[in-house]
């Protein structure tokens, strides 16, 4: 499954902490590897046959944990799971000590944690690759990778398209990671659509600005609905609001429905899921709705990611 002409050094044995650690050719290698897995669903090579993957999720997860687990199993790996609520985490064991144990059992650790920088901290004590499945509001690299793969598949590429990133841009790690991913491409335009209290954090704005990504801030999607190719919705991250009153002020402040989208032409609607009321169920039947396809791409993209991190690109 090696892809000729592209290097694999950026992947083999590396941590996956942020999509910013990867160049455009690195991402292209991931997507070409993903294409091969999508094209060979019944003949998946068991390239992780002698490997053990550990999952350690200190925050709720459906898609990320189970699609990584499915990806590892499909490639022939065995998977062990640390359930924080029935492990020594409950007795007060520190994250570094927990990681030191897992690295002695497994060849890779896929983790999610509510604290920013938790995956980076884990990578400093772990001798095996750490795959960040989300650290607080900061990074969610594999989500951004599958978002970009979805756009590449449905729109034929990422360059030149017009993007609206909508909702809780303040706390959504998915929005930040997606913007970081876009810095590797040349989008036509990028609109950041959010109510006042949920604007992009300065650190994210400064990072993308320094990397040359221009983005325009708006309060409403309506004026640009017929001018965008991709609408990336995000859930309000209720669990990350330090003050519940702040959450009360913004909850329900944005929502798209079938009628909102009547001017949207062939824009695709993405959402990392889970959705709450920001994305109405009546959108599901529209040809624009792409979020279920997006979620399903989670397995092949994560197969390609694990395959490359475990050295598969070199075989
Ligand atoms: C997202 C997350 O955990 O950041 N979910 C996911 O991984 N698909 C988005 C969210 O929880 O809103």
SSE arrangement:
Elements (H helix, E strand, L loop, with lengths): L23 H16 L12 E6 L5 H12 L3 E5 L12 H11 L2 E6 L4 H8 L4 E6 L5 H15 L6 E5 L6 H10 L6 E5 L8 H9 L5 E3 L11 E4 L10 H7 L17 E3 L20 H6 L1 H12 L6
Bound molecules: N-carbamoyl-L-aspartate.
What does this entry look like structurally?
Helices cover 34% and strands 14% of the residues. With 315 residues, it is α/β, with parallel strands linked by helices. The strands form two sheets. The protein has a five-stranded parallel beta sheet. It has a four-stranded parallel beta sheet with strand order 2-1-3-4, with helices on both faces. The protein is globular and about 55 Å long. The model has no long low-confidence stretch (mean pLDDT 95). Bound molecules: N-carbamoyl-L-aspartate (NCD). N-carbamoyl-L-aspartate is lined by residues 63-64, 134, 140, 143, 173-174, 235, 272-273.
Distinctive features:
four-stranded parallel β-sheet, binds N-carbamoyl-L-aspartate, alpha/beta, 9 strands, 315 residues, globular
In round numbers, the mean pLDDT is 95
Secondary structure tally, helices: 10
Largest sheet: 5 strands, parallel
| Helix content range | 25-40%
Low-pLDDT windows of residues: none
- Roughly how many Å apart are the termini? 7 Å
Q: Mind telling me the C-alpha Rg?
A: 19 Å
Total number of β-strand segments?
A: 9
Strand fraction: 5-15%
Kindly name the structural category.
alpha/beta
- Coarse morphology: globular
**What's the helix-strand series?**
HEHEHEHEHEHEHEEHEHH
Bound molecules: N-carbamoyl-L-aspartate
Going across the biggest sheet, name each strand in turn. 7-6-5-8-9
